[in-house]
Every structure is written in structure tokens, then in C-alpha cells.
Design brief:
This protein is of the alpha+beta class. The chain has two domains: 5-46, GTP cyclohydrolase I, N-terminal domain (GTP Cyclohydrolase I, Chain A, domain 1); 55-186, 2-Layer Sandwich (GTP Cyclohydrolase I, domain 2). Helices cover 41% and strands 26% of the residues. The chain is built from eight helices and seven strands; from the N terminus they run H-H-H-E-E-E-E-H-E-H-E-H-E-H-H. Helix 1 (5-18) crosses helix 2 (31-42) and helix 4 runs antiparallel to helix 5.
């Protein structure tokens, strides 16, 4: 699959005409090209296979929680093609000491955020990919995001956050492990 840049440019030009703008005026003349180029960047995840991202593994005798939190992301809501953005927090427990490079986890998140998305699906996709490609014993993903479709249109409630979570494997089945992971993600102290 490749992006049809010419088609995107024509569509943007038609949108500008449809809202009563002159796409040939100085400030808008290059807008269709700029939007097409932007779409190639913000939807690049459509051209990427998540399996290719999770290829680097290391052997380290560690079968305890690994938490990466406050990972910023930007995505586009598939309902209105408006941005939603926030932070991804994730934790996983390696299986038999098979750990993945931390940057690979972040790159994996980007594969899914750079697609037309729903936050609920995004959360599930990240968790499922880590279970499948890293073969983790357990995974937890928590996403906090602000949706521009709720802040600049519709109900107009800026600052409101949507929080979603997905929990898999031993982190789903073991309440104490799940509580520990959530505490570490939120920065809470747990009794040891």
C-alpha cells in the first residue's frame, strides 16, 4: 500500500472549495500539498508491520515488572479526523528472561498511534502486540488522552481526559501484581 498523494491533494482542494474558500489564494495555494505530506507522516503506521518493530530481544534473568510510563503520543480519531493526544503507560513481565529494548516498546506504540484510531482499540492493540511479539508473561497498558473532538467541537470540554486500560496474562490474573503495576504507573508507593 502506498499513499495516493495526488488524490489527497485533490480531496483537500475540494474541501476548501466546499467550505467557501478559494484554494488558489496565496495562503491556501500550497495547503493541499502540505496536508498530503502531513498525512503521509501522521498515518505512517498504516504502512508498518508491528512484528517488525519487536525484533530485538535480550536475555536477562529478569521475570519481574518492567514499567515504561509517561510516553507521549499523538493520534487521529477516526470519527472526526481530529487529533487526540496524551500519555501511554505500560508494563510487562518478561518470559524466561526475554526482554525487549525499551525503544522498541515506544516504536511499537508509534506504529499503532500513526493510524486512524479509537483510544479503546489503540490500548488493546498495544497490549496484544506486546503479548504476541515479546511473548510476555503479562502486560498492562494505560492510556490517558485528551480528544480534540471533545474540546474544540461538540461538548467543548477542554482538559477532560479519557483513560483506558488493557491487562493481559499474569497481570490480569494476579490482583497483587496488577495493583503493583498500577501503583508504579501512577507513582504511588506500595507496601513491600
Amino acid at each position: 500500500m502506498m499513499f495516493e498523494v495526488d488524490k489527497i491533494e485533490r480531496a483537500v482542494r475540494m474541501i476548501l472549495e466546499a467550505i467557501g474558500e478559494n484554494p488558489d489564494r496565496e495562503g491556501l495555494r500550497d495547503t493541499p500539498r502540505r496536508v498530503a505530506k502531513m498525512y503521509q507522516e501522521i498515518f505512517a503506521g498504516l504502512l508498518q508491520d508491528p512484528a517488525a518493530v519487536f525484533t530485538v530481544h535480550y536475555t536477562e534473568e529478569h521475570e519481574e515488572l518492567v514499567i515504561v510510563k509517561d510516553i507521549p503520543f499523538y493520534s487521529m480519531c477516526e470519527h472526526h479526523l481530529l487529533p487526540f493526544f496524551g500519555k501511554v503507560h505500560l508494563g510487562y513481565i518478561p518470559r524466561k528472561g526475554r526482554v525487549v529494548g525499551l525503544s522498541k516498546l515506544v516504536r511499537g506504540i508509534e506504529v499503532f498511534t500513526k493510524r486512524p484510531q479509537l483510544q479503546e482499540r489503540l490500548t488493546k492493540q498495544i497490549a496484544d502486540a506486546i503479548m504476541q511479539y515479546v511473548r510476555a508473561l503479562g502486560v498492562i497498558v494505560v492510556i490517558e488522552a485528551e480528544h480534540m473532538c471533545m474540546t474544540m467541537r461538540g461538548v467543548k470540554k477542554p482538559g477532560s481526559l479519557t483513560v483506558t486500560s488493557a491487562v493481559r496474562g499474569v497481570l490480569h490474573d494476579d490482583e497483587a501484581l496488577r495493583s503493583e503495576a498500577l501503583a508504579l504507573i501512577k507513582g504511588w508507593r506500595t507496601a513491600v
